[in-house]
Amino acid sequence: GQAVGEANDDEEGTWKSAACWHNCGGRCVNKVLVKDGVVIRQKTDDTHLDSPDFPQQRGCLRGRSQRQQVFGADRLKYPMKRKNWKPGGGKKELRGKDQWVRISWDEALDIVSSEIKRVKVNYGNEAIWATGDGEMDKVLFENGGCTKDYGTTSWGAWMWASTMMGVAEGYYEVGMNDRLDLRNSQLIVLWGLNPAWSSPGSPTYNYLQAKKAGAKFISIDPMYTDSAEVFDAEWFPIRPGTDHALALAIMHTLLDEDDPKTNPLIDWEFLNSCTVGFDENHMPEGADPKDNFKDYLLGTYDHEPKTAEWASEICGLSPNLIRQLARQIGGTKRVALLTGWAAARINDGEGWVQAFSTLGFMTGHMGRPGRMTGVSVHRAAGNGGPWLIEQGSKGYPAPKENAVTNLINHNEVFSAILDGKFHQKGEGERKANLQFIYHQYNATLQTRTSINQGIKAHREVEFVVTNAYNLTTNAQYSDIVLPVTSMWEREGGLLGGNREMIIVHSNIVDPLYEAKSDIWIAKELMKRLGKNPNTLYPFSEKQAFFNELATTNVIMENGVDFEPLVGITAEDIKAWGVEGKPQKGRVPIAELIERGVYQVARRPGDNFGHIAYEDFVNDPENNPVDTPSGKFEIYCETIHEESKKGWSDIPPIPKYIPKELGYEDTFGDWKNKDKGKYPFQLYNPHYLRRSHTVFDNIPWLREMMPSPLFMNATDAKERGIKDGDTVIIYNDHGKTLRPARVTQTMTPGVLALPHGAWPRFDKDEKIDKAGADNILQAPISTGLGTSGWNTVICDVKKYTGKPLTEDKDWEQLIVFPEG
Amino acid sequence: MTQIGFFIDVTKCIGCKTCVVACKDKNNLEVGRNFRRVYSFEEGVFPNPSLSHVSLSCNHCDVPTCIPNCPTTAIFKRAEDGAVLIDHDKCVGCRYCEWNCPYEAPQFNEQLGKMTKCDTCFDLRDAGEEPVCVTSCPLRAIEFGPITELRKKYGTVSEIKGMPSASITQPNLVMKIK
């Protein structure tokens, strides 16, 4: 007998480059072994030897289980409709509970198109709401337009406030230096930043190289994270939403202790040449000199100096620790002051963005080697700078502009349905009569605002349709669900990753069951709406893939110019069966597709490094930033003026205002420190089981990552909660269950509920069992329209009902198990 | 014989379990069956806690307790490299090895009714590759090779607090710990 585990003996088949296309921020090489139309194994980057300067782009546990998503038993197989659906709704209250009936594509598309027409005739185009972005937008724009939504999504208050004051928001523009320069930092401050959980792939490994080069790490976070552990960071446990107060106290300490000669903690030259608004002598034109930041810190006019003692009461760190932190940040020569967006995903978050940036200005940790202040997340986690590979274009014509101007803030999408009105930013109240929801490429019902309010809204409108490949929450509450192909079943395409690489993914298998691509659905709907599909899609999806490859450029050795990445011959064009011209390129098309990735080789001293804001800091007069003053604006009139068009007033300087549903609101009586009805703060860390909501259904990942509620051991003991107990977490917006993970790694008074679980309700729909984070979310908007997911208050207690079984043992959501 | 073994850098591990999933993928392991597992430990008291994660598979021990306790002599140490393997022609799925292994290495396959375990990806190794846990680790915290070489490079630590004593089976495991 042969000695075996269960290796796939006799493996034949072909390795292909497969997409891992989710919104985790990382991009990793994912290859799959295809045999007889099925993927039997995966692997990651083995396209070149691995080294810290030129690392392989290794995938995470989610990428490694991608085949369970594509070939899962819970894939949606056929178009389907809700049993009791009728034109105009038909027992709308049964959405989410009704039975599903298999229908043909023709019937499904006829229903969707006739409902589009009916709702348009009865209520106008404004009544149609297409959520998120995607191909269906294009169809609906051609059809006279539709209502759209917008918001701050992952950015939180970084979305708009940052650019108004002249700093990068962290995605389109990046405020951190590149990863090789990070090794020049002596101190790396991770402020609300846990790459080990939030940025799998290479970022944590890249940070480790900085540690190896001698950097000390600090972690300011409500949780002692795996990043803090692996970087040996000094941990400063902080309450969610109080970072703003801490930053002010750090700056007050710097001001208090700075002596340019004996104890230089402040970079006065930087403040003088690169900023406006710090003191009364550097105010922008027209501003009241008394409104300067320095006098606010000192309490000159409001008689409240923003001392370490003042902040301690709010943020929870002792005054001594705050001062020690200030001395480290101000007194170390080369500091990387890095934050995630999470700390700004709070109500009234704009002031924190202003305060954090101002700390960078004061210490001058910007625009110089080893020195940086900014956001380090998503595609630029641990590695800032412009793209070294410019992804090409598919070449589809631009769709019509949307003729409907209604734009609903994410926090009001469901109340707009329920209350019939919303706040049109910059204008005021508008009436809304939304009757048709098209969920295309998003998880709106889970990731926008209160889930319970969202479900109510979904049962209000006349029609809901979703494109999906699993029974997502959007799909569950729909009338019609159209099964779409996963990226593995499409023609192939490009995926930009970190700045140094691009993934080229191929078709892996034919569409499964009756799934079709979004573009195919869009074309069919165009036909049924009496439009010519060729106006949007004049060529095939294969041609689009080819166009994208042909127009992709890669940086040249000089670090300035770009050249085509892909070499294409006349024979290639013939073999592809597409239109195009031969071109010279760095890698032949066939080789690139086989390899599946192109990564620019890096080494210290190459021409691809990046120091954020270097030109501006070196010569601010000749390289102004994009603000009215041309400088970083500590006093920012733009933010203040823009806030008048939004939801609540934002002062021009980062004045501390208690955050709506922040720490102060956990008290019934703040002055006497009596706790209130909801004594806990709760936030939503990104968690390795999911990329936002995606992957929550994957059995392997449910086993690996149980998605518990993280709570401090003392808090748990006081409430009689033991590790593993089922607890109920609740507030005015909903109730949800989770097993408790009782730990010393959580700040007391703070709960962490991992982001993105798909809700599963008990029979009477009162309690969610899955720990869906937005069950507890208040549907409110503040400032410029920021979504405050990390400002939630609630209570928690031991659940007296039937304890939860482990998520891995839950039944999958399979609609037609018979096949 | 050149005895093989694993090196686990506990100081680099973030507990992401990519190694476990890569192993599941390679070996087609259903929920509940894991040839590699990550054990997490927490110590200390707020605000000074510490975390550690230890990724373990079979340690292909020098004194594997699974072998003498197998009533059908199905488990053996492969001559050329000391990998501990199971002969499925002899295994009757009695699970004695599971009870005897301090590391939970043998994993029962309900469908086959037999024990299964880490085989060091010997098919990949025959093709000149490394075991998938090694090539999957985003933090480069796992190495595989002749144990004498690993010990020369990394020392002889083979247990941390919370783990079974290395004296029981003499595992071919080296760890870097804080």
From TrEMBL, chain B:
It comes from the Bacteria. Its cofactor is [4Fe-4S] cluster. The keyword Hydrolase does not apply. The keyword Transcription regulation does not apply. Residues 4-34, 82-111 form the 4Fe-4S ferredoxin-type domain. Keywords: 4Fe-4S, Electron transport, Iron, Iron-sulfur, Metal-binding, Repeat, Transport. InterPro entries: 4Fe4S_Fe-S-bd, 4Fe4S_Fe_S_CS, DMSO_DmsB, ET_IronSulfur_Cluster-Binding. PROSITE patterns: 4FE4S_FER_1, 4FE4S_FER_2. GO terms for molecular function: 4 iron, 4 sulfur cluster binding; metal ion binding. Electron transfer subunit of the terminal reductase during anaerobic growth on various sulfoxide and N-oxide compounds. PANTHER family: ANAEROBIC DIMETHYL SULFOXIDE REDUCTASE CHAIN B-RELATED, PROTEIN NRFC. This is Dimethylsulfoxide reductase, chain B.
